[in-house]
C-alpha cells in the first residue's frame, strides 16, 4: 500500500479518509467560522472535504476593533464566495441555535 502512495497511484486505490466532523447536516445553512489568527466569518456552507476545507457563499467577515484587536465589531464586510483552507479553521458552528454568552472567567483574578 505504501508503495502505491509513493509512486502516485490513482486515488481509487487509496483508502478513503473520513472526516471526524460531520458537516453534511450544515450544508446550505449559515455557519460562523473562526480562523487561526482571530478572523471570523459568517456564510452559507456550500461544500467541505475530509480535512475541513470549506466553501462558503455570501460570506461576511466581522471587522475588529482598531483599539482592541481581540474584540470583534458587529460591522462586517462582504467577501462573497470563499474557499477556506482547513488547516486555518479553528471553529465551525451554525448561526441558528447558538447564542453568545458572557465569559464567567473574564473578571476572575
Task: Describe what this molecule looks like in 3D.
This protein has 109 residues and is mainly beta. Helix content is 5%, strand content 41%. The radius of gyration is 18 Å and the shape is globular. The N and C termini lie far apart (55 Å).
Keywords:
109 residues; mainly beta; 1 helix; 5 strands; 41% strand
Proportion of residues in extended strands = 35-45%
Structural class: mainly beta
Strand order of the largest sheet: 4-3-2-1-5
Q: Which residues sit in consecutive blocks of at least 5 with pLDDT less than 50?
A: 1-13
> Oligomeric state of the chains?
single chain
Overall pLDDT level: 82
Query: How many strands?
Result: 5
Largest sheet: 5 strands, antiparallel
Question: Could you spell the SSE succession in H and E letters?
Answer: HEEEEE
Give the overall shape, derived from the CA principal axes.
globular
Give the N-to-C terminal Cα separation. Answer: 55 Å
**Count of discrete alpha- or pi-helical segments spanning 4 or more residues:** 1
- What share of residues is helical? under 10%
Radius of gyration: 18 Å
Amino acid at each position: 500500500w505504501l508503495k502505491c502512495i509513493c509512486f502516485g497511484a490513482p486515488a481509487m486505490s487509496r483508502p478513503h479518509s473520513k472526516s471526524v466532523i460531520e458537516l453534511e447536516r450544515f450544508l446550505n445553512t449559515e455557519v460562523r467560522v473562526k480562523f487561526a489568527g482571530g478572523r471570523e466569518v459568517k456564510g452559507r456552507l456550500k461544500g467541505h472535504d475530509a480535512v475541513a476545507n470549506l466553501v462558503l457563499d455570501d460570506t461576511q467577515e466581522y471587522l475588529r476593533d482598531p483599539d482592541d484587536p481581540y474584540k470583534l465589531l458587529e460591522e462586517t464586510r462582504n467577501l462573497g464566495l470563499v474557499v477556506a483552507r482547513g488547516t486555518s479553521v479553528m471553529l465551525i458552528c451554525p448561526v441558528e441555535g447558538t447564542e453568545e454568552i458572557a465569559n464567567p472567567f473574564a473578571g476572575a483574578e
